[in-house]
Design goal:
This protein has about 220 residues and is of the alpha/beta class. Helices cover about 30% and strands about 25% of the residues. The strands form three sheets. A six-stranded mixed sheet has the order 1-3-2-4-5-6. Strands 7-8-9-10 form a four-stranded antiparallel sheet, covered by helices on one side.
Length: about 220
């Protein structure tokens, strides 16, 4: 079982690593979800006796099964637990037979899966902002970038959200300082530089060689995605 802990939703994924089959656990981890991965419906039921997730994702395509029995077994024990069922392209599912809340037919992107998960997690995903590999939760002041998670101060959250609202655009130092600190005095923006360095530690793999939060010398900062 593999686990990564974040506060952006708790997922139980029933998925096996199969050659030629798309795996969704790595993508969900990068999206910032808390993910527990088990290999069968039987393991899932055992896990559910210990902790209950916000939603279950069943990658039936990786299990070489329709997933119908797993859905029925889970819902007979946990009727209120939402299930997203992933099936192979062209696989038939009898109407009303499966008890999944959502059925997704391959192929599709991890973004589509995440969009179907968000309605089932606390806050409906409304506090999550996503630009490229960066997912920011403004309620919990947390950011996930390329699988790296960090807790932010409210001030850092405001700075990052401002940059995420205009990806690829240069935001002038004085403009950014004025918006975040709510002041017209912008002669000394050294505190902004310090906050930018802290933000780089949170989102960059190598803060000394940033790939996302770029300094435009003499002008300001740009968020590259």
């Amino acid at each position: 079982m593999s686990t990564v802990i974040t506060d952006m939703g708790r997922i139980l994924c029933i998925e096996k690593k199969q050659s030629g089959k798309q795996a969704f656990v790595p993508g969900m981890l990068k999206k910032g979800f808390f993910v527990d991965n088990v290999n069968s419906g039987k393991e899932a039921l055992k896990h559910l006796q210990i902790t209950q997730p916000d939603v279950i994702v069943i990658n039936a395509a990786s299990l070489r099964t329709s997933g119908v029995r797993i859905c029925q077994s889970i819902h007979s024990n946990f009727p209120d637990l939402p299930i997203i069922l992933i099936i192979d392209k062209g696989q038939k599912t009898a109407s009303g037979k499966h008890t999944a809340n959502v059925v997704l037919e391959l192929p599709f992107t991890i973004r589509k899966l995440a969009n179907r998960i968000y309605p089932y997690i606390p806050g409906d995903g409304k506090d999550n902002f996503e630009v490229g590999p960066i997912i920011l939760n403004t309620k919990r002041n947390k950011v996930v970038c390329n699988g790296k998670e960090a807790k932010l101060t409210p001030q850092l959250t405001k700075i990052l959200k401002t940059l995420m609202e205009k990806p690829g655009e240069v935001i002038e130092r004085h403009q950014l300082f004025k918006k975040i600190w709510k002041t017209n005095y912008t002669d000394d923006t050294r505190s902004l530089d310090v906050h930018i360095s802290w933000l780089r530690k949170a989102i960059e793999q190598d803060p000394h060689n940033p790939k996302h939060l770029i300094t435009i010398r003499g002008v300001g900062y740009r968020l590259d995605i």
